């Protein structure tokens, strides 16, 4: 390979790697195409405390926000970043069967802004 061609290839690779490194991670896309009971059933198969914690979170959301949480919102709460901290704490409390902590955490569930 000629030196000029080698430089061109190296420059192209460097530019591609730099562009890739600077790219922002894309936001996860979730569809609201699964009924909440189906999603909860799947959680129960993976980890029963996850379903129990999710049910406690859903009940707290209903109570605090005045509406039922949609499946897509629950999926995001589990999946984005490290998960909603309150939801994750409710799953842990469910696993430990800690009713007092579940009750305390229910008061921390946040409602999305009205749009």
Describe the structure in your own words:
The protein has 115 residues and is mainly α. Helices cover 67% and strands 0% of the residues. It has helices spanning 3-22, 36-46, 48-65, 71-79, 85-95, 99-106. Helix 2 runs antiparallel to helix 3, helix 3 crosses helix 5 (85-95) and helix 5 (85-95) runs antiparallel to helix 6. It is globular and about 35 Å long.
Present the secondary structure layout.
Blueprint: H1 3-22, H2 36-46, H3 48-65, H4 71-79, H5 85-95, H6 99-106
Quick overview:
With 115 residues, this protein is an all-alpha fold. The protein is built from six helices and no strands.
Features of this protein?
mainly alpha; globular; 115 residues; 6 helices; 67% helix; disordered N terminus
> Could you say which overall geometry the principal axes of the C-alpha atoms support?
globular
Mean pLDDT comes to: 80
Structural class: mainly alpha
- Residue fraction in strands: under 5%
Unreliable residue runs? 3-26
What separation lies between the terminal Cα atoms?
Answer: 60 Å
Q: Estimate the helix proportion, in percent.
A: 55-70%
Number of strands: 0
Q: Quick one: biggest sheet?
A: none
* Order of secondary-structure elements: HHHHHH
Number of helices: 6
Radius of gyration: 22 Å
């Amino acid at each position: 390979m000629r030196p000029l061609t080698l430089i061109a290839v190296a420059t192209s690779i460097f530019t591609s790697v730099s562009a890739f490194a600077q790219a922002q991670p894309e936001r996860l896309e979730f569809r609201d195409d699964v009924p909440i009971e189906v999603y909860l059933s799947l959680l129960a198969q993976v980890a029963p405390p996850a379903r129990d914690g999710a049910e406690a979170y859903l009940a707290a959301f209903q109570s605090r926000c005045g509406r039922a949480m949609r499946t897509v919102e629950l999926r995001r709460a589990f999946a984005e970043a490290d998960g909603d901290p309150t939801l994750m704490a409710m799953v842990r409390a469910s696993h430990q069967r800690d009713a007092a902590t579940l009750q305390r955490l229910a008061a921390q569930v946040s409602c999305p802004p009205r749009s």
